[in-house]
Write a sequence for this structure.
């Protein structure tokens, strides 16, 4: 009968439409024009670590530009710890909230990225389709597509580079230590003048990894998942080292500074004379802002220090993916990267391959006179790659067990 | 319509707390379908007790609550006993309200700047008295047993308990009692302690309990001054709730229940202490000793509170100095150079938080005031004497915030209410309401009933009498209560942070976010702004009546 | 019954003023067992006289003149050392103490037979067995009697009465007057009574000063 067939057809059509709707909802990064059009008027909640005012200042500038250039309202949700954002998305997924997530973009890398990939919490792939992504020249710079040994596969987009940089007050100490053993000797000679942030802060955890890379004799194991090696055997020299080091640290190791920026504050108060940071320009900016004395100098350990690229990723349930992608793309623009790198703003290094840019754009990145407290230009070539993310959590737990209660 | 007001208030206060507790209790035993927990289990508790340092966290939370409250109470009692009628008394009374208005986080920051090894006190005495050229490596702030946390708590608790005592004193006729005691030969301090204090204490018992509950579960002060390895229980709970590992969420709920237990245990312990003291002092009250200890008690009484007030003020000065400081090497007492840079740089970033703070504060306090006025007016018309109701009013203050706020979020989410400004305002209302009620109730009730009788006899209706007689007569206390509510809202940290999911930024949330390590100078700027806002509220409260021309001598101030 | 003897209370050229305007001027000597009545309408400052003598005068008043108890210059002593008892309109029994506790409160520290004294005092006013009662459960008259005994137990050297009978109902008033004045006479205490009720003055049977 014609009626039944018609209604059946209609039902099938509606069903197909209903099922295809979720697919239609996600913007397609390869059709950039429509993405930009869709993004206009959206509010993007960017969850990013908010513990450093310079970073916050930069993000404020980005928000201004996004509003002016694309009509996108960017809200910086300040996080203490990226893990809480991961926890929120996971909780939303388990509560069945697949389309109205409260987070649109996360500043992320390392084990948090691995955790989100594992639980299928990310939208993608999108990064390599972003118009500005080509400027990073991924072929020659593999670090922009590798996060702690894991390939990003387009699920996160790079936006800055960090490398552990040490700095010291040259008025207090003349020969800063160049490797871990020298650090132990230095701490012996200068008790209470050095410390590292309390685990599980990411800067503190990176110090553990740095020390481990140098001290262990099974370095290759670090680039494989931790389950594939004898954790005790690999880390034994690290714990022996820390046991020897802690009594000579600030407050005799009974308490640790809260975070990376805290180290700077302590040096400013005269409590520390040696510290380190993820940002090579940190010390210079601090001097410019009256936080540190002008006698401060930066350097990198002679064996090289850990460096990584930090990324932004989009949760699968974000309702503003188009806006998030436009933001991620803007972060990769030469304009944004140059602004970020300038000492007056933040000082975080660019992920773009500057030599490949045209001459006019290159001028944006000119720094002018080098600040005396800044790292010498050639020092950044010695970058060690990050170990497998599973090592981070394992090391953190082990540290908390041994030193978590004093 | 007015008759609904008390029921409304009770609903507003009890329901969220109850719902919050319920939604924390269930996951503590493994039940939270949204996160995959379907059955009752003790796994969260096993996980909790396996955490290293849990015992110490609990002990520090418990002890800091009891000790700080005891110290604060002693300071206040001795002050009142030793300073009646002196210039000190009058001076301190003026200082108390502003000191009370300064939020906990600001005081904590300032205090930290004072006593840190590289702080103001160390700078003042170095190198002249101590020979230090660089700060000593001493674990003063964040000490493992929480002494600096206790000290910080005392600084805030003293003004609060003092204010509560001053509010309760008039109904006791303390002057007459003291007169009598002195005529019987008792020296003033001892006389006050024997004749006024025993009757005063029952009147301030609830505020004391509120202080204990707060101190055992405080988060923002513990983040700034408290121990770190391990932190106090409340701080640990916060980090566990934010952990990406979902199983930690269940453990955090169990810990929240534990926190509730710790608070209840502390209250119980205090109650036992009350009974013990009552038995021990029974003899002392009537043994007739009139002089023994007078001098010591008088000295301590006058100096202790003065010292604590000066410390609080010095903390603010320290914040101010840091906010203007250029480079400031230890052991210089003053910065080598002063600069307005930090203020200028923070200027633009202050705008949104300031607007939010003002909005949330004004709306929640206005709502609270309306509700309180409605309830008080209803009491007056129905001639009700509320006694039991007072405990319900104190409920949000007695149950630790961290214990039920997380549950409240879960409850809100399951009702489909997303984190947003409205939810934050509702959350603030929960905590502002009790304080506005407490500030206003006594004065409201004590308004001479004859004013209204005169008005009614002149043919004015009941609601007209309310608007045209009662309100204008009570303008000053009303504005003060409003200022108190505003101050409470400004100082809130957890409700804004949790109910707004980090999206709603106020001056307090920003300031506390800076706590872990940022530039002291910026902290100085933010903490001063945070401290200054309530003061503006109080100045308005004092100044508006004058401005509106309703300031007449006989009106209550 | 032989009455005890106490030193006389001398009020020497006392003048109390408020904001420059003189409120009252008194010059009198009260001998042992005698009651001086000071009368005047409200606002005439009668209570300030008591406050001055006892040592509690408000800051806003200016006063001059001497107060002597026998050889002792009271003005040089703080209030708690003057040994002057007070009896107010309100009995002001301490609510946190029992009746017995209130009475003990008035006793000196080191005394052998406190319990004995308390029992005797209660018997004297017809309240035997009331030691452990809560003052709030007593009637107005009973409270006044306890207040009187508390005062007497503290062994004062002089007594000031601030309209102590005005809150009692008329029937009780006469009874209390008799009790109070007889006790004072027996103890030989010089007393100063401030009142606006002529009946009080009559019962006091002493000299009367009219103010205002």
């Amino acid at each position: 009968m014609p009626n039944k067939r018609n209604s059946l057809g209609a039902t099938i059509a509606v069903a197909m439409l209903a099922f295809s709707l979720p697919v239609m909802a996600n913007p397609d990064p390869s059709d950039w024009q429509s993405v930009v059009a869709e993004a206009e008027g959206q509010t993007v909640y960017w969850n990013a670590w908010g513990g450093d005012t310079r970073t916050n200042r930069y993000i404020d500038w980005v928000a201004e530009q996004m509003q002016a250039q694309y009509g996108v309202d960017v809200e910086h949700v300040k996080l203490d710890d990226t893990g809480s954002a991961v926890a929120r998305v996971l909780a939303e997924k388990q509560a069945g909230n697949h389309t109205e997530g409260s987070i649109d973009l996360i500043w992320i890398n390392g084990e948090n990225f691995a955790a989100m990939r594992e639980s299928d919490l990310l939208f993608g792939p999108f990064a390599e389709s972003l118009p500005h992504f080509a400027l990073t020249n991924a072929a020659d710079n593999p670090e922009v597509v590798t996060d702690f040994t894991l390939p990003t596969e387009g699920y996160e987009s790079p936006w800055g580079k960090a490398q552990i940089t040490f700095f010291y007050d040259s008025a207090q100490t003349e020969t800063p230590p160049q490797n871990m053993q020298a650090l132990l000797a230095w701490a012996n000679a200068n008790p209470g003048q050095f410390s590292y942030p309390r685990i599980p802060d990411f800067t503190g955890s990176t110090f553990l990894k740095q020390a481990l890379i140098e001290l262990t004799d099974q370095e290759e194991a670090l680039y494989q998942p931790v389950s594939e090696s004898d954790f005790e055997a690999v880390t034994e020299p690290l714990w022996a080292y820390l046991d020897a080091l802690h009594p000579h640290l600030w407050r005799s190791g009974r308490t640790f500074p809260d975070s990376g920026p805290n180290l700077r504050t302590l040096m400013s108060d005269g409590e520390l004379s040696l510290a380190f940071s993820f940002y090579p320009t940190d010390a210079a900016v601090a001097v410019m802002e009256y936080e540190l004395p002008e006698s401060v100098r930066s350097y990198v350990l002679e064996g090289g220090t850990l460096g990584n690229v930090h990324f932004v990723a989009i949760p699968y349930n974000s309702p503003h993916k188009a806006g998030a992608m436009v933001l991620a793309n803007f972060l990769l623009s030469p304009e944004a990267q140059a602004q970020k790198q300038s000492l007056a703003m933040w000082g975080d290094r660019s992920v773009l391959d500057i030599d490949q840019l045209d001459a006019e754009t290159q001028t944006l990145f000119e720094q002018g006179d080098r600040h005396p407290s800044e790292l010498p230009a050639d020092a950044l070539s010695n970058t060690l790659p990050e170990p497998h993310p599973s090592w981070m959590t394992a090391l953190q737990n082990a540290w908390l067990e041994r030193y978590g209660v004093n | 319509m007015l008759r609904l007001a008390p029921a409304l208030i009770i609903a507003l206060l009890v329901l969220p707390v109850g719902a919050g507790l319920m939604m924390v209790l269930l996951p503590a035993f493994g039940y939270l379908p949204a996160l995959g927990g379907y059955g009752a289990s003790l796994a969260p508790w096993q996980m909790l007790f396996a955490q290293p340092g849990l015992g110490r966290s609990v002990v520090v939370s418990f002890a800091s609550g009891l000790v700080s409250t005891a110290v604060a109470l002693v300071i206040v009692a001795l002050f009142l006993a030793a300073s009646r009628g002196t210039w000190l008394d009058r001076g301190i009374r003026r200082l108390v309200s502003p000191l009370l208005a300064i939020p906990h986080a600001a005081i904590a920051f300032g205090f930290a700047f004072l006593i840190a090894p590289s702080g103001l006190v160390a700078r003042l005495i170095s190198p002249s008295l101590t020979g230090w050229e660089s700060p000593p490596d001493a674990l003063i702030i964040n000490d493992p047993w929480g002494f600096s946390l206790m000290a910080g708590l005392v600084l805030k608790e003293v003004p609060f308990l003092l204010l509560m005592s001053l509010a309760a004193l008039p109904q006791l006729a303390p002057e007459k009692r003291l007169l009598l005691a002195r005529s019987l030969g008792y020296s003033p301090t001892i006389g006050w302690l024997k004749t006024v204090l025993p009757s005063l204490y029952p009147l301030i018992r609830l505020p004391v309990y509120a202080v204990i509950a707060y101190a055992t579960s405080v988060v923002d002060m513990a983040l700034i001054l408290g121990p770190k390895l391990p932190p106090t229980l409340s701080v640990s709970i916060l980090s566990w709730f934010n952990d990406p590992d979902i199983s930690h969420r269940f453990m955090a709920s169990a810990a929240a229940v534990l926190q509730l237990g710790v608070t209840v245990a502390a209250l119980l312990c205090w109650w036992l202490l009350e009974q013990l003291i009552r038995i021990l002092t029974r003899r002392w009250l009537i043994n007739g000793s009139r002089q023994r200890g007078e001098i010591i008690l008088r000295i301590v009484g006058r100096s202790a509170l003065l010292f604590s007030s000066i410390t609080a003020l010095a903390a603010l000065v320290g914040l101010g100095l840091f906010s203007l400081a250029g480079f400031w090497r230890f052991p210089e007492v003053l910065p080598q150079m002063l600069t307005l840079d930090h203020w200028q740089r923070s200027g633009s970033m202050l705008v949104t938080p300031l607007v939010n703070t003002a909005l949330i504060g004004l709306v929640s306090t206005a709502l609270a005031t309306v509700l309180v006025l409605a309830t008080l007016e209803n009491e007056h018309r129905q001639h009700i004497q509320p006694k039991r109701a007072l405990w319900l009013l104190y409920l949000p203050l007695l149950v630790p915030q961290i214990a039920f706020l997380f549950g409240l979020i879960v409850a809100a989410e399951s009702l489909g209410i997303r984190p947003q400004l409205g939810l934050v305002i509702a959350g603030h209302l929960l905590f502002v309401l009790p304080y506005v009620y407490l500030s206003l109730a006594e004065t409201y009730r004590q308004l001479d009933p004859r004013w209204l009788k005169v008005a009614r006899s002149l043919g004015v209706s009941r609601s007209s009498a309310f608007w045209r007689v009662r309100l204008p007569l009570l303008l000053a206390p009303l504005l003060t209560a409003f200022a108190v509510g505003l101050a409470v809202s400004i100082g809130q940290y957890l409700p804004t942070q949790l109910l707004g999911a980090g999206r709603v930024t106020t001056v307090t949330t920003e300031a506390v976010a800076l706590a872990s390590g940022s530039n002291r100078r910026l902290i100085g700027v933010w903490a001063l702004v945070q401290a200054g806002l309530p003061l503006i509220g109080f100045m308005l409260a004092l100044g508006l009546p004058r401005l509106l021309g309703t300031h007449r001598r006989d009106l209550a101030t | 019954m032989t009455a005890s003897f106490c030193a006389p209370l001398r009020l020497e050229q006392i003048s109390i003023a408020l904001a420059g305007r003189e409120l009252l001027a008194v010059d009198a000597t009260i001998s042992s067992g005698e009651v001086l009545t000071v009368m005047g309408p409200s606002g005439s400052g009668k209570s300030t006289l008591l406050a001055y003598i006892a040592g509690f005068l408000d800051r806003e008043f200016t006063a001059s003149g001497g107060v002597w108890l026998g050889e002792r210059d009271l003005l040089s002593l703080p209030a708690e050392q003057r040994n002057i008892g007070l009896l107010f309109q309100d009995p002001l029994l301490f609510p946190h103490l029992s009746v017995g506790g209130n009475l003990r409160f008035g006793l000196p520290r080191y005394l052998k037979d406190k319990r004995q004294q308390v029992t005797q005092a209660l018997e004297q006013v017809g309240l035997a067995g009331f030691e452990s009662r809560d003052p709030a459960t007593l009637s107005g008259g009973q409270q006044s009697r306890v207040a009187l005994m508390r005062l007497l137990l503290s062994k004062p050297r002089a007594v000031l009465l601030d309209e102590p009978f005005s809150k009692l109902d008329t029937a009780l008033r006469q009874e209390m007057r008799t009790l109070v004045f007889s006790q004072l006479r027996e103890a030989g205490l010089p007393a100063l009574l401030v009142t606006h009720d002529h009946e009080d003055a009559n019962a006091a049977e002493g000299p009367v000063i009219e103010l205002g």
Remarks:
- Chain B has a mean pLDDT of 85.
- Chain B is about 75% helix and 0% strand.
- Residues 187 and 291 of chain B are 6 Å apart (CA to CA).
